[in-house]
Amino acid sequence: MSYYFAIIGTQDNPLFEYEFGTSKQGGDGMARFTEQARQLNQFIIHSSLDIVEEVQWTNGQMYLKLVDRFFTSYISCFLTASNIKFLLLHQPPSSSTLTGGTSRTSTSIAANPTSPQTEEAIRNFFAEVYENYVKAIMSPFYRTNMEIRSPVFRARVAAAGRKYL
Amino acid sequence: MSNHLPAGAGSGGGGGRAGDSGLRYPSNGKTIYHRPLNRTKTAELSKAAFAYLFAEMVSYAQRRVTGIQELEKRLNLQGHPIGLKLLDLLLFREPPRTQLRPLNIIALLHFIKINVWTHLFGRQADRLEKSSNPDTPDEFMIIDNEPLVNAYISVPKEMSQLNCAAFAAGIIEGVCDGAGFPARVTAHTVGDTGEGGEMWPGRTVFLVKFQPEVLEREALIGAKS
Amino acid sequence: MSSASKASRLGEEIWKTRIEKVNAELVVLTYGTIVAQICKDFENDYAEVNKQLDRMGYNIGLRLIEDYLAKSNTMRRCSNFRETAEMIAKVGFKIFLNVTPTITNWTGDNKQFSLVFDENPLADFVELPDDGRAQDQLWFSNILCGVLRGALEMVQMQVETHFISDVLRGHDTTEMRVTLVRYIDDELPPEDD
């Protein structure tokens, strides 16, 4: 599985981006997006914002689970208290790049974007990112919609990715 | 996405490299990221420390403004970011069952009256009221009989209109804005009107006036459900 | 009993029984918004921000000392600067900020020491701006320097105070240097140094 994680501000402005791959089932943590897919990812995330805005005022949960799908790309969303969007695009490996574990992919986090296990793993990922996000915004020097540039924050997001995804 | 981050900002396959950041961190890892967020949840400091800081904030602000209104505006501005931060901090601390974003005005005002007030001032605000004037359905009131922030400031006579609760009003405004309920919040000391009024000479009404779009959305959601 | 453990016991006792308390985060957030506002007002001229914070602290110190003396019931003058240091760290900081910095690095003439802050409640939640200057120029907790200077001046001690390290700048400790310049004697005209 390849992941593209983005934090989107209230003006639909990106505050943080991070690309990574699964660390489960022997994954090396590297994203396997093609250059073309990489450019598309930002577009897909952007277009899913409309869907998030539709459910934003009817569902008070922070974790909105899967909100959108574009071919083989799945988008999960978490909304913070201040309506900042955490979006995770996850794309299972296409058959040509599968390197193993093909026979038991039905429930694995690494391969199945819609399994309950995956949903739970992403919940945990978001929860851990949220904790670190709150720490980032607590700083008196942080203002709404500022890009999050802290290298420690980035490392924490990476660690959460390794741990759960 | 035209307003995208510079290339490279999102790359990296699992490393925590510093990138273009120039910040240094202590080798012993004493940063906010290494401390649990709940560490200071119930920690206490002296009320005096708050009073001294607050008084200095007011007198610093006084030196940079020309009138009471401007001063109150400034205190409001200084409270605003605190509200924004508390909104996420306090919701983060809720147990999963009640970790819900406020979706309507009443839920939001309850969050302020209960969660925000209890956290900052050790007790709930005293009352919530909706404006009884049919011309102002966008106005709500949070009532505090004895705001902590006023207890420390003896207002000079010539500035008797000054209400330092403007700072708390700013905090409320920050919570409202952050949660997606843009509003203007002002603090008003109310006279000894009504029963029991004389017991609370500092009773303060925080008047929350929501932007029209908030009520429009509320009507829309109400109609749907 | 040493003056150190006496002071420490006194600080604990006062904190527990005689201090009205508020939520620490209210204080921390209020201080944070003050510093951020000053940075904005002075367009991130951090040298000026340090000065402003010191000045605020000085004003606080002038008033705080009365409160301190009343709470600690120690109208008696400290017998020497070492005892003063103990009272600052274990009573003063304890009863206002609920921390007890470590006293260390005395000079041979007993006129200079350091306060090392293992905990600094003012800096909880803070990450300095990543502008390439703040970590070299801003002393986020500089208000504390002013507080000490102001408070001690009221009890006839002229001191010089400044931070020499801060974990917010990436140092491993937060350390304030305190230097006794002179005792201000009411009876005598001020001497020139």
UniProtKB/TrEMBL annotation, chain A:
Name of the protein: Sedlin
BP GO terms, sorted: endoplasmic reticulum to Golgi vesicle-mediated transport
Gene3D superfamilies linked to this entry: 3.30.450.70
Composition-biased stretches (Low complexity): 96-108
Region feature Disordered, mapped onto this chain: 96-115
GO cellular-component term (any): cytoplasm
SUPFAM superfamilies in the cross-refs: SNARE-like
Domain of life where this protein originates: Eukaryota
TrEMBL record, chain B:
Keyword entries, A-Z: Endoplasmic reticulum, ER-Golgi transport, Golgi apparatus, Transport
Biased composition (Gly residues): 9-19
Entry-linked InterPro entries: NO_sig/Golgi_transp_ligand-bd, TRAPP-I_su5, TRAPP_component
Localization of this protein: Endoplasmic reticulum; Golgi apparatus, cis-Golgi network
Family: Belongs to the TRAPP small subunits family. BET3 subfamily.
Quaternary structure and partners: Part of the multisubunit TRAPP (transport protein particle) complex.
Protein name as it appears in the record: Trafficking protein particle complex subunit
The species this protein was found in: Neurospora tetrasperma (strain FGSC 2508 / ATCC MYA-4615 / P0657)
Taxonomic placement: Eukaryota, Fungi, Dikarya, Ascomycota, Pezizomycotina
UniProtKB/TrEMBL annotation, chain C:
Compartment(s) of residence: Endoplasmic reticulum; Golgi apparatus, cis-Golgi network
Biological process terms in GO annotation: endoplasmic reticulum to Golgi vesicle-mediated transport; intra-Golgi vesicle-mediated transport; macroautophagy
InterPro entries tied to this protein: Bet3 (IPR016721), NO_sig/Golgi_transp_ligand-bd (IPR024096), TRAPP_component (IPR007194)
Highest rank taxon of the organism: Eukaryota
Keyword entries, A-Z: Endoplasmic reticulum, ER-Golgi transport, Golgi apparatus, Transport
PANTHER family cross-referenced by the UniProt entry: TRAFFICKING PROTEIN PARTICLE COMPLEX SUBUNIT 3
Family: Belongs to the TRAPP small subunits family. BET3 subfamily.
Gene Ontology cellular component list: cis-Golgi network membrane; cytosol; endoplasmic reticulum; TRAPP complex
Lineage: Eukaryota, Fungi, Dikarya, Ascomycota, Pezizomycotina
Principal location class: endoplasmic reticulum
Stated name of the protein: Trafficking protein particle complex subunit BET3
Native source species: Neurospora crassa (strain ATCC 24698 / 74-OR23-1A / CBS 708.71 / DSM 1257 / FGSC 987)
